[in-house]
Amino acid sequence: MDPHLLRTYVTVARLASFSEAARDLGYTQSAVSQHIAALESDLGLPLLTRRPVAPTPAGERLLEHAGALLLRLEAARADLDRFAAAPRATLDVAASPLALTPRTLAALPASGVTLRALPREGVPVAVATGEADAGLVEGIAAPSDPLRLADVAPLAATRVAEEPLAVVLPVHHPLADRPGLRLDDLVDARWLDAPDAGISLDRLRAVHGGPGGRGFRDALRYEGTDTRTLAALAAAGHGLALLPLPAAQGVPGAAAVPLVAPRLVHRTELLLPAGTGREPSGPVAEFARRLKG
Predict the structure, then answer these.
(1) What pTM was computed for the model?
(2) With 90 as the cut, is the pLDDT of residue 249 above it?
(3) Which residues belong to any copy of the HTH lysR-type domain (predicted)?
(4) What does the alpha-carbon distance between residue 55 and residue 187 come to, in Å, rounded to a whole number?
(5) Helix (H) or strand (E) holding 167
(6) Burial (CB count <10 Å: 0-12, 13-18, 19+), residue 157
(7) Under 8 Å CB-to-CB from 33, ≥6 apart: which residues?
(8) φ, ψ for residue 191 (rounded to 5)?
């Protein structure tokens, strides 16, 4: 399967237009049509209806594979490019918002740094494809367990920190004076859904393991990346939030009650490309050394 044809197909399916895909890819519309026809001929199946432009059932199934296939190819190219690349004098870091703590920020070199906040799932992709030299990713896990990350490419993950978790709620909430809280007691509570700034409700449902993944109703969805805004929303009574204890403390009007069951921690990991056959050097090595120190 020619990856160029596959990339054209994904673009046409995403934009639902041959002409828009041609503009996006810098091809003529005729070339796009030829690419789709060649891919359909190769697979022996129609992949798109033409009026309107939409994936067929076979095309939908191909889309389920296409993203991972194209990402792997891009990661493979970036991995091989690193063998011939000269040592870099600058550092590009991709990080999920909750990984940006005083400790990780203090580890950054004094100059020559570009820092980008990305959703959690975007951090391994950025490192794998060469868009970032290093990544900081975080999530919830059992104590001392590694994070479960998508297998996008060979990456080396190193533990940076493990912190307790806390439920953030208004100071006058009936549960605010508890010494600790259990997820079992909060399944029917109203929660803030903030996948990019806090712990997503999907993750809470997964670790709780309740019937059919139900519970943890969302009262408000926050699509920003500012953790302090998320905590302020919890303090204002818009829903509960789960955050690392250091990030949950000191928010005006909010109480941070430790999560005591299940036994979970908030884990932060440093991601670096693996398998290049040489140790990191320059700003990447300095950053890694400071994080491990």
Answers:
(1) 0.86
(2) yes
(3) 1-56
(4) 38
(5) strand 165-170
(6) middle
(7) 18
(8) -120, 160
